[in-house]
Design a protein that fits this description.
It is built from 2 helices and 4 strands. It is an alpha+beta fold. The longest helix has 20 residues, at 38-57.
Length: 95
């Protein structure tokens, strides 16, 4: 499934993430949000909740699918590190 991938960190601004989610859904109909760690996942969930509420008010039907993915992180010490991330895939369609 195509769509833009948004990477959320522990220092991400929730309002900025939620606005980016809305923009992607309205333009493409799908967005992927990746997060690694508890704080970044919490920020991603807060942004998703706000975005889904807004989309529902605007007449969209949404479907959210969380899953685990493997990602490689560039690490200056040992070149790359494999991590597990949570990928939230949000699909929205105007009803």
């Amino acid at each position: 499934m195509r769509g833009q991938v948004l990477k959320v960190s522990s220092s991400s601004n929730v309002a900025s993430v939620y606005i980016a989610i809305l923009k992607c859904i309205k333009q493409e109909g799908v967005v992927h949000i990746d997060s690694i760690g508890m704080k970044s996942s919490y920020n991603a969930l807060k942004a998703l909740i706000i975005a889904i509420d807004e989309l529902l008010l605007e007449g969209y039907k949404t479907n959210l699918r969380p899953r685990y993915i493997n990602v490689n992180i560039n690490n200056p010490v040992d070149s790359t590190t494999a991590k597990v991330a949570i990928r939230f895939t949000l699909v929205g369609k105007k009803a």
